[in-house]
Amino acid sequence: MPGSSFAPPADISLGSILIAFVAILVTIFLILRAERKQAAVGRREFQLFLLGYIVISICEIFTVGGLPMGSALQQRVVLGFTAVHLGAIVATLWILMLNGIVGFQLLDDGTPLSLGLILLSALALFIGTGYLALDTAFSYSRHFNSSMQGQNRNIGLYVLYQLAPLLFLAGFFILETVLVLRVLGERKPMLYLLAAALLFAIGQIFQYVISTHICSGTNGKINGALFETLFTLLAVVMTWVFWSSITEDDWPTPVTGGTYT
User: Comparing C-alpha atoms, which of 107, 81, 104 is closest to residue 17?
Assistant: First the structure.
């Protein structure tokens, strides 16, 4: 999901906007499908992740899709959405990692305590990242003015937006791998998890490696962000398929201690 640069795009990308709209509709469908799995472990917690992804997709309509930058007000709107976008990415991936912990049933899932801890911690990350982005963009405190010069570096924002999400994703992958292989004693769900990781990685390759070449070849009409948005959507869908596959009611008794029902 780390897919937007802090500088808003200059041109409108209708393809990115369309994919973002599709992502919102598909995610709503996944939330409704999850609602039908009444006995699924971590149902509410996973729906929180999907809601976070909807917020990201809404922001991408304005940040990745772009808006005309003809006025100062339009520039401020895009910068504002960019800050929300960055905060939503960090918070949503934090929620995803916590979903990996939910599966071990350290706390009863779906309870006010479980949901409250996830929401409050995610909100703290959202506010912290959003503030850094807004202060950098609008110079409220002027503390980050130096980051807009030279090599345009903001270490705090870089850590929160680039490094932290990668750690959250790695944590989720490791936790779910242990859960599936050691607790459930299954292998098939790992195919879905690996597919999700591969699709996400492909999207990041388009964003950070291939995008420059696509822009050059299309005179800036298409960039890697369009493909990043598409592959991230596919990765989210496969993550839902993975979650659904490990919450079936017909799993055998776990091969180790503990339960997962």
Answer: 81
pLDDT at position 2 = 52
Quote the tokens at residue 203.
């999207």
- Tell me, what's the pLDDT at 251? 44
Global pTM value: 0.85
Q: Among residues 2, 17, 15, 26, which one has the least CA distance to residue 237?
A: 26
Q: In a 3-state reduction of DSSP, which class is residue 158?
A: helix
CA-CA distances (angstroms) from residue 177 to 77, 173, 187, 246? 41, 6, 9, 11
* Least trusted range by pLDDT, from 7-21, 39-53, 237-251: 7-21
Nearest to 58 by CA among 98, 92, 95: 92
| DSSP code string of 35-70 | HT-TT-TTHHHHHHHHHHHHHHHHHHHHHTS-----
Q: What does each C-alpha distance from 19 to 22, 32, 41 come to in angstroms?
A: 5, 20, 30
Angle at 3 between CA 28 and CA 8, to 5 degrees: 105
Handedness of CA 147, 153, 155, 156 (dihedral sign): positive
Residue 226 contacts residue 13 (beta carbons within 8 Å)? yes
Q: Which of 66, 55, 197, 57 is nearest to 126 (CA)?
A: 55
In sequence order, what are the residues at sequence separation of 6 or more whose Cβ sits closer than 8 angstroms to the Cβ of residue 223? 9, 13, 211, 214, 215
Q: Where are the beta strands (DSSP E) in the chain?
A: none
Region at 110 (left for phi over 0; alpha for psi -120 to 50; beta for the rest)? left
If one compares 109 and 6, the residue with the highest pLDDT of the two is: 109
Cβ–Cβ < 8 Å for 52, 91:
yes
Residues contacting 25, CB < 8 A, separation 6+:
none
